[in-house]
Structures are given as structure tokens and as C-alpha cells.
Amino acid sequence: MWKMGAAAMAAFACIALPAAAQTSEYRQQLDQQLQKSRELFQQQGYTIAAGPFTGALAAGGKERFTLPVQSGYSYKILGICDNDCSDVDLRIFNMNGQNIGEDVTNDDVPLVDLQPTGNGTVQLEANMITCSAAPCYHAIEVYWKR
Question: Is residue 105 classed exposed, middle or buried when 0-12, 13-18 and 19+ CB atoms within 10 A define those classes?
């Protein structure tokens, strides 16, 4: 019985390894894009405030993340996705569910500027529009400056 269990585990490991390698490849794609963005925003005086918030979605999928915000700061909220994605949208909602910012253009790098009028919490929503090989991996990173 132990031999059958060991054989099953070995077979599972052979199947799981390519999936892990794929995930690593997509993480590298996201990390490379984020590094370029960080350099660009740092040149503009921004630093990382939060993130990256990451996930994997099929076309039509949505995912939300919570972000505390403070008045007196300017925020840039950036979305990115892997090479299998050609369109991802980004929306920002206040705690009353009102849309207070969005980038829904046909591209894979949405960017939303946010100037909170008070301290509180917002919801960041990634919406995967076009994904050629599901799931598509995405990330949201938040930058701020006074």
C-alpha cells in the first residue's frame, strides 16, 4: 500500500512541477514590469505605499483588494498583467461602493490617480478583460507622495 502511495506522490510531483514552473515564469513577468514602474515613479518622487496585490483570473473575472488611504497624499495605483493578458481594467471604490476612479481603456497597464479627501479605506478592483491562456496573473501596486 505504501508503494502505491509513493507512486501516486511521484506522479503528482511530475504533474505539479510544470505548473509551479509556469507560476514562477508569470511571477517573473510581473516582477520585471513592477521594477520598471517603481523606477519611473521614484523619478517622479513617489514611493511604494502598498502591494503588490496579486491574483490570477480568467477573462471576465474580478478581484478586490482593500487599501487604507490618507488625505494629504497623492496616490498612483497601477495594474499590470502577464504576457497572456492584453486588457485588464482597474476601478477604485469608496466604502459606500461608489466608483471614485478607474482606467478601463483597452490596455494591459491601467493607472489611476487618487487624491483622498479624508482618511479611510478604498477597494481596488482588477477586472480581467482579455486573457488568452487562463488564468492570467495580475498585480496592483500603490505609490504615494505628499
Answer: exposed
